[in-house]
Amino acid sequence: MITGPIRGCLSLTLYFLNTVFWCLLLFIVAAAKAMVPLESWRRKCSRILNVIAENWIWVNNLNRRLTSNTRWVVEGIENLERSQWHLVLANHQSWVDILVMQRVFYRKIPLLKFFLKKELFWLPLLGQAWWALDFPFINRYTSRHLQKNPHLKGKDLESIRKACAKFKTNPVSVMNFVEGTRFTTEKHSRQKSPYAHLLKPKAGGIAYVLGEMGDHIHRLLDVTIVYHGGARSFWAFLRGNIREVKVRVRSLPVSSELLGDYLNDGLFRKNLQLWLNNLWNEKDRCIEEMLTS
User: Fold this and answer.
1) For the residues of 122-134, what is the DSSP string, one character each?
2) Are strands 244-253 and 71-75 parallel, antiparallel or unpaired?
3) Domain housing 110
4) What is the pLDDT of residue 234?
5) CB-based contact 139:159 (threshold 8 Å)
6) Distance (Å, rounded) from C-alpha 107 to C-alpha 58?
7) How many CA atoms lie within 13 A of 90 on its CB side?
8) What is the DSSP string of 15-69?
9) How far is CA 188 from CA 95, 140, 199, 204, in A?
10) 34 in a domain, yes or no?
11) Confidence (pLDDT) at 31
12) Are the beta carbons of 231 and 239 closer than 8 angstroms?
């Protein structure tokens, strides 16, 4: 029988080899896309890049089946459409969340794309792959930093606008962890979060995406992820120490109450945050139910 550390090393090696192989193809197509300034050519290259990324995910999923006996309990993905644009919201506990959603949504919806801190561009292979796939890199400025450097105000929003313009060319699933950071008991305590299993959500990110892409987004997907025994590290995931993963997906309409001027309309800003707080209340109850069922 393969022990945990050996299984982890084997799985990590397979992830690495898979990433190197597909990244080489990805970079070749990305270079071809950059060299020809024709919009039709670039759209075609973007579709090919997305197919390469999906093949990378397919092999990663095969890796998990070969090296792990994790039990998956997934609900709510039966009637999803690959030809539609989606905005995906989820609770955030670990880097494993991204691999979980890539597995759950594989060939169910368009490729998941999410906003990344600019520093992550320098992550070997993956950072450059995300750039080639048009993942948006943004600077996240604190209020204190903006007070000292007022000329930077609005720069992050401009980055979001440019990313959303690219997202309109081909169907995409825009991923947003609205808590802004991974859940820990320390952060939960420091925030004085009103939720038992979640941090406080922030409405700004989804407001900006819907403000730029409201006429493109077909559905909003509310994703709840629960790990048996609590959130685990990526190494624990590789070792096969996560015995069970539960995922529940709810498909919600993009109603008129979610569309408005978040920057200048104070009432809309307040109502959108209230809507998100209510969604998080439901998610908190959902997590409690999933933990006890």
Assistant:
1) GSTTHHHHHHHTT
2) parallel
3) 70-292
4) 86
5) yes
6) 9
7) 30
8) HHHHHHHHHHHHHHHHHHHHH---HHHHHHHHHHHHHHHHHHHHHHHHHHHHH--
9) 18, 21, 6, 20
10) no
11) 96
12) no
- In this structure, are residues 39 and 165 in contact, taking their beta carbons and an 8 Å threshold? no
- Comparing C-alpha atoms, which of 170, 223, 198, 164 is closest to residue 50? 170
| Helix, strand or coil, per DSSP, at residue 230 | coil
Q: Compute and round to an integer the Cα radius of gyration of the chain.
A: 19
- Note whether residue 37 is domain-resident: no
**Is 274 inside a domain boundary?**
yes
Helix axes 266-292, 204-213, angle to 10 degrees: 110
Can you tell me the distance from the alpha carbon of 104 to that of 258, in angstroms, rounded to the nearest whole number?
Answer: 26
Helix or strand (DSSP H, E) at 4: helix 4-35
Q: What is the pLDDT of residues 30-49, one digit of tens each?
A: 999 999 989 899 989 999 99
**Spatial distance between the Cα atoms of 170 and 174, rounded to a whole number of angstroms:** 12
Which pTM was predicted? 0.89
Asked if the structure places residue 195 within a domain, the reply is yes
Domain count, the chain: 1
Closest CA to 95 of 230, 205, 231: 231
The residues of the chain scoring below 50 in pLDDT are 1
190: number of Cβ within 10 Å:
10
* CA 55/CA 19 separation, integer angstroms: 10
Strand partners of residue 88: 175, 221
C-alpha distance from residue 236 to each of 16, 96, 100, 229, 292 (Å): 17, 10, 14, 12, 23
Looking up residue 236, the CATH number of its domain turns out to be 3.40.1130
Model pLDDT, residue 30: 96
Q: Cα separation of 164 and 206, whole Å?
A: 12
Q: Report the C-alpha dihedral over residues 89, 95, 99, 101, rounded to 10 degrees.
A: -10
Beta strands per DSSP E along the chain:
71-75, 85-90, 112-114, 116-117, 137-138, 173-176, 217-227, 244-253
